[in-house]
Write a structure and sequence with these properties.
The chain is of the alpha/beta class and about 375 residues long. The protein has 14 helices and 15 strands. Helix 1 packs parallel to helix 2.
Length: about 375
């Protein structure tokens, strides 16, 4: 197997963001047991194929809020992973961090244990937007943390930024981008705020307490973002991601390539090339070694998943690389006919090697990709 990526899920947060539907907990009573279970799970998976002998070129701490964890515990997890797997000489070790956790001292400490990259949950420079989403930081933290990073030994970082926030307009979004231009992070992950069921935001929208921008405003904000990013020298390499030269997210790019990845911790997902599985999203049950459900993917499932992830990227879908080995010829021909139909509608752009969704159609990507899937009766 080629180099792979390792994801470690740290499920603890200082407080609950109102839009978040990831697995997290604001109670830390299970922390010691969960961390020990993560060490145990890592050791077990390292003996299994395809992870046994695999080279790790990206280790990613996600959450939750990994920056909430003690530096010593982060260091123990990195050391454990290094002892169990072969680390690439150029491994990228990313820590998701909230602005209110970042200080000059923390940056030095994280660097000392091997952190090479940060993913900062900044989200906004607007205090009202941050308060409405129950973020733990304010606009002053947003600016201060970027200034500290500029003087720190960790120079590779990404900023998470949200558009489509309650009460936002195209002009207010452009003002946010103007503020970001003072820093020009090496990498940006910019997402439209989505309203997920079972979140506080969902109930606030349903009750009329919060009003979301219209789809037209959200599309206009995305278009303003793309124009601004290209003008600033970023490459728009995936629907929600922008990078300065050579600063693509190694971890995310691995996911989008359809290659195997290993997830450790409560709620973490894994894929070995044929099967995928997911740990229980319950800290106590995870620490007790709860059964791990999973499923073996059919060739059609693999094809559809690759269509879904690859067509969100600028490179798109490549016939020689992305078609699963062994896929029935007649089914492949049907997909090619679907692609030809989409091309005639201007929904995809074909090349000699494959096809991609034009960037000006990326906001329609889910609907376009759905048209390329095989219908149930064609499986």
């Amino acid at each position: 197997m080629n180099a792979t990526t390792l994801y470690l899920h740290i499920p603890y947060c200082k407080q609950a963001c109102h839009y978040c539907d990831f697995h997290f907990s604001t109670q830390r009573s299970t922390e010691s047991a969960v961390l020990e279970a993560m060490h145990t799970e890592m050791a077990m998976r390292s003996l299994q194929m395809p992870w046994n002998g695999a080279t790790i070129n990206s280790l990613y701490f996600g959450g939750g809020t990994p920056s909430f964890l003690a530096v010593t515990e982060l260091g123990r997890l990195i050391d454990e992973a290094r002892s169990l797997f072969s680390f690439s000489s150029s491994i990228e070790i990313t820590l998701e961090a909230n602005p209110d956790d970042i200080t000059s001292e923390k940056l030095e400490a994280w660097h000392s244990i091997g952190i090479t990259r940060l993913s900062i949950g900044l989200q906004s420079f607007n205090n009202l937007e941050l308060q409405s989403m129950n973020r733990a930081h304010d606009a002053s933290h947003s600016a201060q943390c970027l200034e500290w990073i500029a003087d720190s030994p960790i120079q590779n970082y990404s900023v998470d930024f949200m558009y489509g926030m309650p009460g936002s307009t195209v002009e207010s979004w452009k003002r946010q981008l103007d503020q970001l231009a003072a820093y020009l992070p090496p990498h940006l992950s910019c997402y439209a705020l989505t309203v997920e069921e079972k979140t506080v935001l969902y109930h606030d929208v349903r009750s009329g307490k919060i009003t979301m921008p219209t789809d037209e405003v959200i599309v206009a904000q995305f278009e303003a973002l793309r124009a601004w990013a290209l003008e600033q020298g970023y490459t728009h390499y995936e629907l929600s991601n922008f990078a300065q030269p050579d600063k693509y997210s190694r971890h995310n790019s691995h996911y989008w390539s359809g290659q195997p990845y290993l997830g450790i911790g409560p709620g973490a997902h894994s894929f070995d090339g044929e099967k995928r599985w997911w740990n229980v999203s319950n800290n106590t049950l995870y620490a007790q070694g709860a059964e791990v459900p999973g499923e073996k993917l059919s060739l059609i499932d693999l094809l559809n998943e690759r269509l879904m992830v690859r067509l969100r990227t600028a490179k798109g879908f490549l016939w020689k690389i992305d078609v699963p080995v062994g896929l029935d010829h007649l089914k492949l021909e049907r997909v090619k006919r679907n692609v030809q139909t989409a091309e005639a509608k201007g929904l995809v752009r074909c090349t000699d090697n494959g096809f991609a969704i034009p960037p000006d159609r990326w906001m329609q990507s889910d609907a376009i990709i759905a048209e390329l899937f095989l219908s149930p009766e064609e499986r």
